[in-house]
Amino acid sequence: MVTKLKKSNPSKKAPLPLAGSVKDSAQQIWQAGVGAFNKAQAEGTKAIEALIKEGVSMQRKTQSVAEEKLSEASSKMSSMATDISSKASGQWDKLESIFEDRVAKALNKLGVPSAKDINALIARIDELNKSVQKLSAKGAAPKAAVKTAPKPAAKKAVKAAPKVALKRAAPRKTAAPASPV
User: Fold this and answer.
1) Residue 1 above 80 pLDDT?
2) How crowded is the C-beta side of 111, counted as CA atoms within 13 Å?
């Protein structure tokens, strides 16, 4: 069944102001939301700009600290490398001297004269050459004096030197020094 709606009584005007006040409230809420959105957008941009500035500042500080740490690490590494290389070169020097000593001992056992021995022989030969030159300068004196006295002395000096040299160099069979006579 259908019921009829009753017409509203014109004496009751309350419902109209309630609807208007709800409409006004909704409009104010909408305007407040738009205002808040606008303000949030404006302040959001400012906040983002402030955060960007802060980020740039932090990035610069971080880079400077990182560069300092990198330079410290680099200097420490270079000093460590220097220390290691000096220790390594010292070890190489020790190894080299040990090797040289062992090679010298082996060559000595085989009868090969060392550089020291050869230098001693050269010095001895130089001394003998000077002695021979002195004796040959005295050879300008009378022949009788030269034949009797200086020759035996010269022969003794010449004979003494090869014996010393041959004792060290005997196993090698090197050529004997040329006789000064």
Assistant:
1) no
2) 9
